[in-house]
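User:
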Amino acid sequence: MSGRLIPAAAMVIVASLAGAPQAAAPQTGESGEKLIKGSDCSSCHAVDREVVGPAFSAIAKRYAGQADAIDKLAAKIREGGSGMTPHPDLTDAQRREMVKWILSQTGTAEPVQVASSYTLKDGTIVNLDFPVYADGAGPKVTKEVFHGYQLFNSYCYRCHGTDATGGQLAPDLRRSLSSGMKRQEFLSVVAAGRAEKGMPSWAGFLSGDDIVHIYQYVKGRSLDLVPSGRPPSTQD
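Assistant: Predicted structure:
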């Protein structure tokens, strides 16, 4: 793990691990699809698009034709790692049912694409995979960025400071992103947490879209495209 990621990893934390709600454990005998919907999987994955983690259809395509795919993926669900939350509470039979359903998904996952370009105050042009402004030029932010602002200033501010300005317990996430932290790193750490840093996993409490919206808000703040305080929005 790089030295840059470790300090940046303490994002979206609360004062203690006990404060993070936990997803209910799935019940025995359920189908793979029902098990997945009843767990925290949808916080990170969707069928046909990348959220925090890859699309289920992309996973199915990657493992197509591999005789040991079920064993490999069931072990991955159990152990976690690389930004994925471990699930030791599930039985082997449950994990295998979930994998069978994942491998049955077809279709082409939609890639993350450049959505908007913006000129910063210093003249630099940046390309983002999401629009910051509802009308293209501002100042009103999109409903997704505004939702990220609401979530951040409901949960994350306790440690990362109001308006993502940094706090005593956790780093300034604007600086983390501007110094090179990538989108996927941000999303993965929010979802899986960093127990050694006192940060819980938010998968199962925040949805995948919630986590993405928080990233969009903080990214906008890091580029000075989103002002401090309540940003103007289409809800005004």
